[in-house]
Specification:
The protein is of the alpha+beta class. The protein contains 7 helices and 11 strands. Helices cover about 25% and strands about 25% of the residues.
C-alpha cells in the first residue's frame, strides 16, 4: 500500500474529516509553539492523493491524531529507526566516545536468557547458549533499566591504542558514573588497576590515570604504541567514571565470520 493510501485508511478508520485533522493539528501547533505542526485540510487532501512527503513536524502531528507510532509512519516513507544502530556500528568511529542507549520501540520484544541451567558450571569459560536452560522475550525498553542511572557505555575508538592489548580498539566498556575519584593505591596486576573513562575538551579517552597536583596523566599500557598524555585537572579533563566491564572483540571478523566476544572484566567499582 502506498503511503498516501495508508494515511487515508488511518484517517477513515477513525471516522474524522480533513477539517477535523486541521483543527486538531492547530491545537498541537499551538502547544508546541510552532506553525510547522499545523496541517491544513487542503494539505492533508494533497498528501492522500499524491506522493508528497510530509515534514517531521507534520508527521508528528499525524502520529498524535491518528494514534499510531511515529516509527510506523516513518516506515511508510522508507525510514526504519531500527537501522540507526546497525548503521552506527557499520560506520565505526576512529575516536573513543560515549554511547547513547535507547529503545526506539519500547514495546518491541527481544530474546533474552530467562533461566540458566542450575547444573551449569559458571566458574569455567563456556558458551552462553550451553548455560541457558530457557530463553524468553522481554520488551526492549527493559534494557534501559539495567542500572543505566549509574552506568554509561563507551566505545573504544578504532585508533585508540591507549590500553592495547589489554583493551583493544573497537571494544565496548561499561562505565560506573558514580566513581569520579582517581585511586592511587598500587595494584597487584594490570587487571586489578582501575581504568577510567575521561571526557576531554573535544573528545574522550580511556585508560589508567594518575594525579599529581593539578595535573592528570593518562597512562598507556607498556606494550601500547601510545605515550603518556597529561592534562590540566580539572580544567581540561573530566572523569566520567570507572570502567567496570568490557565486551571485547578477540578476533577480526572477515566477511560473514563470527565475532568472538569475551567478558574481560566484570568487577564492582570502588565506592565513591
Amino acid at each position: 500500500m502506498r503511503p498516501a493510501e495508508r494515511l487515508k485508511e488511518l484517517r477513515s478508520r477513525l471516522h474524522i474529516t480533513t477539517r477535523e485533522v486541521a483543527e486538531q493539528s492547530q491545537r498541537i501547533a499551538k502547544a508546541e509553539g510552532s506553525p510547522e505542526f499545523y496541517i491544513s485540510s487542503a494539505w492533508i487532501t494533497k498528501l492522500e492523493n499524491t506522493d508528497s512527503v510530509p515534514s517531521i513536524q507534520k508527521l508528528v502531528s499525524l502520529s498524535v491524531i491518528y494514534r499510531v507510532k511515529f516509527s510506523e509512519l516513518l516506515l511508510l516513507f522508507g525510514v526504519d529507526l531500527e537501522n540507526i544502530g546497525k548503521r552506527q556500528l557499520e560506520i565505526a568511529p576512529q575516536q573513543t566516545y560515549l554511547m547513547a542507549m535507547e529503545a526506539n520501540d519500547p514495546e518491541k520484544r527481544i530474546t533474552f536468557p530467562a533461566r540458566f541451567d542450575q547444573g551449569a558450571n559458571l566458574d569455567g569459560t563456556n558458551l552462553v547458549s550451553r548455560l541457558v536452560e530457557q530463553w524468553g522475550e522481554v520488551p526492549s525498553a527493559v534494557i534501559q533499566h539495567l542500572d543505566l542511572r549509574h552506568n554509561l557505555y563507551g566505545f573504544i575508538g578504532l585508533q585508540d591504542f591507549t590500553l592495547y592489548p589489554l583493551l583493544r580498539p573497537g571494544s565496548f566498556v561499561q562505565v560506573d558514573s558514580r566513581v569520579r575519584k582517581i585511586y592511587s593505591a598500587r595494584s597487584r596486576t594490570e587487571f586489578d588497576r582501575p581504568i577510567y573513562f575521561l571526557e576531554l575538551r573535544a573528545s574522550y579517552a580511556c585508560g589508567w590515570c594518575e594525579i599529581q597536583g593539578n595535573q592528570l596523566s593518562l597512562i598507556p599500557h607498556p606494550l601500547s604504541p601510545s605515550t603518556i598524555r597529561r592534562f590540566e585537572f580539572p580544567g581540561d579533563v573530566e572523569i566520567v567514571g570507572q570502567v567496570t566491564g568490557v565486551a571485547m572483540r578477540l578476533v577480526d571478523d572477515e566477511g560473514d565470520t563470527d565475532i568472538a566476544i569475551a567478558q574481560l572484566l566484570k568487577r564492582p567499582s570502588r565506592s565513591a
